[in-house]
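Filed under: proteins

Residues; backbone shape codes:
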Amino acid sequence: MQPKARRTELAGFHGEALKIRVAAPALEGRANRALLEFLARKLTLKKSDLCLFSGEKSREKTVLVKGLPPEELSRRLGLE
């Protein structure tokens, strides 16, 4: 994740990880909240279906997505 970007958007891959730019600054968890809100909108899920599993204070994060198979996750993110 890249906080304090010009806009919130998918930015392709960085190695095997998906890179996401977030407009919110990395202050008081704002960037983490913006990341989860962006992913919920993009995946058409409720925010409660997403959980920041690891990396709360790191640029490398792991997000747990409940109830969505990997193929459907890729399709909704436009990665196919």
In short: The mean pLDDT is 94. The helical segments are 30-43, 70-77.
